[in-house]
């Protein structure tokens, strides 16, 4: 341990470039040809395969595994991409341990599933490396559709509509498309600018125009879009973040985890990115794990994740929790923040233990902290939106909102898990419904 690691405060350069490159390398190295063949050999090609049912995009998993086994990974990729146009990113970020691989019969029998996610990546990477886009556009329909949000939901919707021959304009508030694939997913899950390369590849279908730095509510209104287009899809994700109400939460050094993660994803040189020596992350979801693990990888000395409920209630999967522990993150459960202490900047954060019903127990403790990340949930932001169900846009069936001609999907819409793969499925299904509605009209 050297002086840089021990230095107090929020500082850059705790680790040198070589150490950072090693820390942020691809979490799972891609399978080679032989490894992929060996992995396919474990599949039973089950009839009524439970892995298909467990996949939110219903990919025909035994079929694509057989296609890899028979030496046609490009055909396997087409099987995947037909159901999930962001199959490359999903192969990197899906919590397969709670989806297809959890359902795999070999997981139940032997505690070792077929490596579906890694095989999916092998197939999609093979095809994308050839620069091939395996879909083409149908004859133009003359219909124009506006999509708000160039995240997984918006991109999946836009691609399916373009395939049907519609013209699509995607509006996104940020300077780059990709949504959380570009600004949120942990850097070690999406290396070598994969998010941007995948968007570029997806756009090869043609018929999709992306307008960045264009926010609904700021640069364009719902009325504008409903007036100018034949249909509207809302896929703007959850742009707001929940506030921390503990006294002192406005002190310097108390930050939103999603902002830290976005800065990290956009940094060209990670050694310039400042991080605390004693970092505390509040929350129990994927965002909390990602902020904690990446702080540690940037060289923070002590990183502690604190969650108000038990481990079994965490949104982060057991696999993600184990990853955090393996990287040296301490996890404290059943504790809620009650005060942030410090003179201007945070020095300590105080927690109170809670029981299983979140009742305070009166037992408190303090953690030294020069940086605190809030990862306590995101919220929908925007005005003049269709009716809400709780804190999201209410949808029925394939993303129909309370307003005729307006569909929604992904994190901003009710129902479904807040996952990349779910957003893709919802965007795709809404596109199918939009297409059917426009062709009936
Ligand atoms: C830190 C973090 C890590 C995650 N890790 C994983 C993971 O490992 N695996 C996984 O499956 N899921 C993960 N998720 C969840 C996953 O990223 C989301 O479920 C998914 O991105 C949702 O897609 P979306 O298209 O609905 O929204 P988003 O990806 O949020 O995209 C919405 C887009 O809309 C744009 N937008 C917002 N407001 C407006 C507006 N007013 N006008 C125009 N455009 C607007 C945004 O700029 C953005 O580009 C993670 C989430 C976070 C926050
Ligand atoms: S459940 Fe497992 S063994 Fe059966 S088809 Fe799916 S991946 Fe293959």
UniProtKB/TrEMBL annotation:
Residues 144-427 form the FAD/NAD(P)-binding domain. Residues 23-131 form the Dihydroprymidine dehydrogenase domain. It comes from the Bacteria. Pfam families: Fer4_20, Pyr_redox_2. SUPFAM superfamilies: alpha-helical ferredoxin, Nucleotide-binding domain. This is Dihydropyrimidine dehydrogenase subunit A.
């Amino acid at each position: 341990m050297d002086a840089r690691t021990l230095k107090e405060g929020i500082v850059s350069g705790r680790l040198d470039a070589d150490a950072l490159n090693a820390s942020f390398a691809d979490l799972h190295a891609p399978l080679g040809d032989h490894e992929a063949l060996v992995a396919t050999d474990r599949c039973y090609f089950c009839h009524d395969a439970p892995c298909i049912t467990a996949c939110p995009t219903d990919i025909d998993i035994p079929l694509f595994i057989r296609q890899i086994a028979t030496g046609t990974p490009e055909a396997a990729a087409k099987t995947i991409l037909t159901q999930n146009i962001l199959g490359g990113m999903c192969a990197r970020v899906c919590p397969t341990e709670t989806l297809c691989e959890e359902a795999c019969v070999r997981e139940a029998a032997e505690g070792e599933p077929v490596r579906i996610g890694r095989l999916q990546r092998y197939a999609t990477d093979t095809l994308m490396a050839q620069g091939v886009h395996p879909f083409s556009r149908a004859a133009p329909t003359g219909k124009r559709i506006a999509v708000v949000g160039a995240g997984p939901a918006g991109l999946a919707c836009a691609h399916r509509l373009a395939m049907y021959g519609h013209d699509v304009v995607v509006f996104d508030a940020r300077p780059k498309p990709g949504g959380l694939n570009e600004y949120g997913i942990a850097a070690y899950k999406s290396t070598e600018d994969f998010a941007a390369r995948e968007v570029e590849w997806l756009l090869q279908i043609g018929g999709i125009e992306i307008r960045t730095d264009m926010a609904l509510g700021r640069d364009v209104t719902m009325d504008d879009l409903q007036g100018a287009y034949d249909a509207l899809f809302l896929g703007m994700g959850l742009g707001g973040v929940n506030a921390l109400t503990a006294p002192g939460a406005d002190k310097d050094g108390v930050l939103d985890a999603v902002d830290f993660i976005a800065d990290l994803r956009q940094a060209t040189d990670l050694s310039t990115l400042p991080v605390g020596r004693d970092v505390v992350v509040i929350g129990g979801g994927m965002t909390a794990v990602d902020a904690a693990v990446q702080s540690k990888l940037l060289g923070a000395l002590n990183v502690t994740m604190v969650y108000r409920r038990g481990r079994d209630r965490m949104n982060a999967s057991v696999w993600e929790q184990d990853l955090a522990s393996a990287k040296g993150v301490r996890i404290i459960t059943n504790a809620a923040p009650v005060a942030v202490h410090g003179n201007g900047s945070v020095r300590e954060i105080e927690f109170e233990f809670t029981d299983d019903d979140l009742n305070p127990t009166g037992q408190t403790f303090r953690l030294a902290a020069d940086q605190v990340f809030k990862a306590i949930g995101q919220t929908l932001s925007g005005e003049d939106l269709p009716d809400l169900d709780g804190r999201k846009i209410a949808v029925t069936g394939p993303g129909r909102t309370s307003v005729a001609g307006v569909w929604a999907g992904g994190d901003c819409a009710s129902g479904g898990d807040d996952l990349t793969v779910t957003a893709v499925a919802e965007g795709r299904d809404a596109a199918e419904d939009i297409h059917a509605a426009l062709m009936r009209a």
